[in-house]
Amino acid sequence: SAVISQKPSRDICQRGTSLTIQCQVDSQVTMMFWYRQQPGQSLTLIATANQGSEATYESGFVIDKFPISRPNLTFSTLTVSNMSPEDSSIYLCSVPHPRGGGEETQYFGPGTRLLVL
Amino acid sequence: DAKTTQPPSMDCAEGRAANLPCNHSTISGNEYVYWYRQIHSQGPQYIIHGLKNNETNEMASLIITEDRKSSTLILPHATLRDTAVYYCILVGKSSGDKLTFGTGTRLAVRP
Asked: Which residues of A touch B46 (CB under 8 A)?
């Protein structure tokens, strides 16, 4: 399995500010994914972060609002910019990891709980 | 959009089997059925997956109908720690490794 850590685990921020969330994996992975989970809702994919190229964003998410860095194969950051209360969510990173037999599953980090006042 | 349909909530008694259904009538030939669960305040956790055969591991069993249009996740002896939201997700080559989460089933295990 892959061990994934995220920092910070939680934060309370003022509107208009930005927060950078870190995701660290204990093995090298090609792709990393960033998800958002709004209160009481399911997970929604924000973007796919590939090392060495720009992130690919899903419909409804833009780079100016959620810039992503992927400096190496074990690390990525997601920044939530110019925050508003609507950005209050849990932000999770995930990575596909081999399970054997040529198959992969997704492993998720513990999440970053963000509250914007 | 999620391609699966699950009941919003279910409950079962501790020690009994929990059977969680999932409908995926538009599943394509190369799509696998994956199950994840999310225990409160944690990241989703992989449970099991299958293509067309029934599968079993240390956590659960997965029963897929012959036409592959529906499946059932079985937790054989539910415990209080199995209380979680369970997600049934289709994963195929067209989606790459991306997971599209539906609303899931909130399972409550009663003591």
From this structure: 105-107
- Residue B9, pLDDT > 70, answer yes
- Is the separation of the CB atoms in A64 and A18 below 8 Å? no
Cβ contact, residue pair A111, B98, below 8 Å:
no
Angle at B2 between CA B71 and CA B54, to 5 degrees: 20
Query: Over the stretch B32-76, which tens digit does the pLDDT of each residue have?
Result: 999 999 998 799 999 999 999 899 999 999 999 999 999 999 999
Q: Distance (Å) from the C-alpha of residue A101 to the closest C-alpha of chain B?
A: 13
pLDDT in tens, A15-61: 999 999 999 999 998 889 999 999 999 999 999 998 888 899 999 99
Which among A48, A106, A111 is the nearest to B46, CB-wise? A106
